[in-house]
Design brief:
The chain is built from one helix and four strands; from the N terminus they run αββββ. By secondary structure, it is mainly β. Strands 1-2-3-4 form a four-stranded antiparallel β-sheet, with no helix packed on it.
Length: about 90
């Protein structure tokens, strides 16, 4: 079962605990978007590596940008790391 963090404070604590200091890299391979009423739905596919020696983790992030008088803000955001199906025994 995946660990879930709900709420701004819990999410911020979890991100701070990931140790992004050394050689964090993000590679985006695909971005799709479409309008939905006055909002924009965006999906990003890519991979992250948090340390130079760590294997990259694939992810999919989907979020909704809601229109505001001064621009947009993130209304909803889902970030999911993808398990490539490889088990520890296969490694």
């Amino acid at each position: 079962m995946a660990n879930v963090s709900v709420g701004r404070q819990k999410i911020q604590e979890r991100i701070k605990g990931l140790d992004f200091k050394d050689n964090t890299k993000v590679r985006v391979s695909n971005v799709d978007s479409q309008t939905s009423h006055e909002n924009i739905v965006i999906q990003v596919i890519g991979e992250t590596a948090f340390k130079a020696t760590e294997d990259p983790k694939k992810f999919v992030q989907t979020f909704v940008l809601a229109k505001q008088p001064s621009g947009y803000f993130v209304l909803n955001d889902i970030l999911r790391y993808i398990d490539d199906g490889e088990t520890e025994e296969e490694q």
